[in-house]
Amino acid sequence: MAKDMQIAVVGSGYVGLVAAVCFAEMGHDVICVDNDERKVAALQGGDTLIHEDHLPELLNRYRNTKVRFMTDLAEATRESQAIFIAVGTPQSETGDADLSYVEAVACEIARSINSYKVIVEKSTVPVYTNEWIRKVMERNGVARDLFDVVSNPEFLREGSAVSDFLHPDRIVVGSDTARAAAVLAEVYAPLTTGAYYTNANLIPGVCSVAAPPVLLNTSTKSAEIIKHASNAFLALKISFINAVSNLCEATDANVEQVARGMGLDSRIGPKFLRPGIGYGGSCFPKDVAAFRSVAEQLGIDFSLLTEVEKINESQKKRFLSKVRSALWTLRGKRIGVLGLAFKGETDDIRESPAIDLVEMLLAEGCSVAAYDPAAIKRTEEIMPASTTLRYASSSYDAAQDADALLILTDWQEFATLDLTEMHKALRYPIVIDGRNLYDPSVMLQHGFTYLSVGRPAAH
Ligand code: NAD
């Protein structure tokens, strides 16, 4: 295994922190830099900061030894051969990606560079970003042979980020020089050669002996486009099945059966054919918007993506109509809500459709008792408890005396509720499931009126 590569990861968020500990797990020495002093102090002091499976184990293994946390990007630049930029690229008002954090990092690297470095775009960035980074370096007087810019997009999913990072489907390296591609090949050699998977100290439950991932070498621009195109395609798949689920509702067909029938076709595949209340999170909404904006700027009609966004937005409104159809009027109704995170097994609430729905319910005059296994703390920061919003201590507490229970996030624990207990807790046994976690016939047997997405109602 490569043991002596010194790597810097800039940004200690969902991607940066996971990348840092996983690179250490692969044998490298890592400096993880963040300009948020409080985050760095918390990480140095033993905090994990985000809810992510297996992250605590890896932090325990490598914190302050193979992974050092600091705010000093200049020092990290000087010490490292490869610098992975993993800062945020949020959506700006125009829909474009806001690349100011990436630019700030590039400027800082330019000021401190002392020998040949590979600057790696790990953040999701639009095509041509590599050229802008190159320009920033050159404008700051850095000689062209002192650096290369590489695109190495990240495909991990929150909730299974550690496992995804160590067992990727593919590793994409977009590079325009053989020298930079060789450095990235060395970074990922523990995975691509399979050496890592023979390590006796693998994390139980995450790392088994696996087929080594494919390393796909492309041009830098192609790699940048691969990431946006992949996320846009996944969002499209979700919107497609959501539109199909609406059609199923109108015809009393069952979208689960339809999705299974479609997914068995190997050209289509079963994944991402799960209908619901729309996609959210920090990636799909902003990446679809950014990709659409790139196409627009290049004079290319990609209005297909506008439709993807439209369907996604309307899915939340349809769900609210479903709640109304079950409860008649909403003002003054007590609603139990299960789930605030944008998806299960994470505490991330960015662009969460669950939060949008809670806001819609409150605006309609409902009172809400909401429970989430990991996302309450983050939600309280943007939506404090009030006379109409209470944060519950369990699923059953959220359901207590409620006129209906809504399932808004696909946490595994919401799929295994004690239905008898839940029936007792609710004022009326009405469950409206935005994630299709239950079999309608089982819900009917337990005496619930059960509405879900794209399936005939059980009542
Ligand atoms: P995040 O907001 O969780 O973390 C970004 C971190 O960068 C923050 O800790 C912030 O303090 C730090 N930062 C900002 N400016 C900095 C600077 N100048 N110097 C040092 N640190 C700085 O973001 P994230 O979810 O980790 O996403 C990072 C990038 O990865 C984005 O481009 C995102 O689209 C992409 N991505 C995210 C995911 C995901 O599931 N979250 C998956 C794949 C790709």
UniProtKB/TrEMBL annotation:
Q: What span is annotated as the signal peptide, if there is one? A: none
Using the record's annotation, list all stretches that form the UDP-glucose/GDP-mannose dehydrogenase C-terminal domain.
336-440
* EC top class named in words: oxidoreductase
- UniProt KW keywords: NAD, Oxidoreductase
The processes (GO biological process) annotated in the record are: polysaccharide biosynthetic process; UDP-glucuronate biosynthetic process
Pfam families for the chain: UDPG_MGDP_dh, UDPG_MGDP_dh_C, UDPG_MGDP_dh_N
Catalysed reaction(s)?
UDP-alpha-D-glucose + 2 NAD(+) + H2O = UDP-alpha-D-glucuronate + 2 NADH + 3 H(+)
Q: Which residues bind substrate?
A: F155, L156, R157, E158, K227, F272, L273, R274, P275, G276, G280, K343
Q: In which pathway does it act?
A: Nucleotide-sugar biosynthesis; UDP-alpha-D-glucuronate biosynthesis; UDP-alpha-D-glucuronate from UDP-alpha-D-glucose: step 1/1
UniProt-listed Enzyme Commission number(s): 1.1.1.22
What does the sequence similarity comment in the record state about its family?
Answer: Belongs to the UDP-glucose/GDP-mannose dehydrogenase family.
What's the name of the protein?
UDP-glucose 6-dehydrogenase
Q: What is the lineage of its organism?
A: Bacteria, Pseudomonadati, Acidobacteriota, Terriglobia, Terriglobales
